[in-house]
Amino acid sequence: MAAEPIPTEPSSLDDDPAFSLHRGGKLEMRSTIPVRNKDDLSLAYTPGVARVCTAIADRPELAYDYTWTSRVVAVVTDGTAVLGLGDIGPAASMPVMEGKSLLFKEFADVDSVPIALNCTGVDEIVDTVIRMAPSFGGINLEDISAPRCFEIEDRLRAALDIPVFHDDQHGTAIVALAALKNAARLVGKPLSELRAVVAGAGASGIAVSKMLIEGGIGDIALSDSKGLIYEGRDGLNPIKTQIAEITNRSHLKGSTEEALRGADVFIGLSGGTVHESCVATMSENAIVFALSNPTPEVHPEVARRHAKVVATGRSDYPNQINNVLAFPGIFRGALDVRARSITEGMKLAAANALAGIVGDDLTPDYVVPGPFDDRVAPAVTRAVAEQARKEGVNRI
């Protein structure tokens, strides 16, 4: 399952269909009104535009009605944690950011602008996004490495009155919770009685653990490269210290593999490897979400020998935990009500909506809807918008 080799000669790049598809980029800007004559021009630009500007200067909230602000999201990265490629820099991150904008548009008709920043300092990124925020109705942070991503999101959420959402954290967490709710239903175990092991304490691992706790899971043991995280362990950064306070109530120590003995759930977000013999020690009717991409922690076919439900991050196996199931509808719902933020309640509402789509069609190979299920974005949009209104974070 290794990545395909990249052509080395520039002249041969377009022989690869991926390169030919990306030539010239995947996005363009289009006007929403015609400019056919001088009357159109005088309304779209000067002098007509001056009247709109003056009105907005007097009443800033009118920008939501008379500019694109209320319906456009900024997709922001610094290129430090791009897919499984790591720190490849802002220029190399742009195909992914364009792809994210493409998915916003295709799946929920949300317009967005990919922005790759040539800076990596927390203060620099926060200050830059705050300065450009008046142009947008929401900020989607993307592919920013941990642990900086946590502070960046927290500071932007505190500073801005528009939704700020780090998809690498919350998108994965929302879809994982939805899938796990259905997997638990399938194996006949309440979520509150499940013991999970999460391998990987980066952005996704931390967020998934927090979301599963919010969703009511029984217990979680989270591990990093040094083993299980627990209160008092040496060398924990502030983020891991915080997560240690709310996880691992069984006070397990040691390795991921040791924690899997008798565990009900394994969620892999580490890029590492888990041997089949360790999966075999899990409980009866175990659940395995091996989400590292393109190479899962344990091969799905191997996991199936011992687990009732298997999910991956890949599109070529059933039960793909794909962020595209979450972020387009979440932002559509937030923008539709002009939400000031995306709350924990809105995330849980999105997860519940996703889980509900599966309904009575639940099988081991179908615990979460597919990305091309046209019920997904509307269901998530409705749930998020309704929850925003319930919590009073909406403007309309």
**How many distinct beta strands?**
10
Q: What order do the SSEs take from the amino end to the carboxyl end, as H and E? A: HHHHEHEHEHEHEHEEHHEHEHEHHH
What average pLDDT do the residues reach? Answer: 94
Classification by helices and strands? alpha/beta
CA radius of gyration is: 22 Å
Using the alpha-carbon principal axes, give the shape. Answer: elongated
Low-confidence segments, ≥5 residues, pLDDT <50? Answer: none
Number of H/I helices? 16
User: Sheet with the most strands?
Assistant: 6 strands, mixed
Helix content: 40-55%
Strand order of the largest sheet: 7-6-5-8-9-10
Oligomer: single chain
Strand content: 5-15%
Distance between the termini: 48 Å
Write the topology of this structure.
Layout: H1 17-22, H2 38-44, H3 48-58, H4 63-66, E1 72-77, H5 89-108, E2 111-116, H6 122-132, E3 138-141, H7 148-159, E4 164-166, H8 167-187, E5 195-199, H9 203-215, E6 219-224, E7 227-228, H10 238-246, H11 256-259, E8 265-268, H12 276-279, E9 286-290, H13 300-304, E10 307-312, H14 327-336, H15 344-358, H16 376-391
Parallel strand pairs: 1-2, 1-3, 3-4, 5-6, 5-8, 8-9, 9-10
Antiparallel strand pairs: 6-7
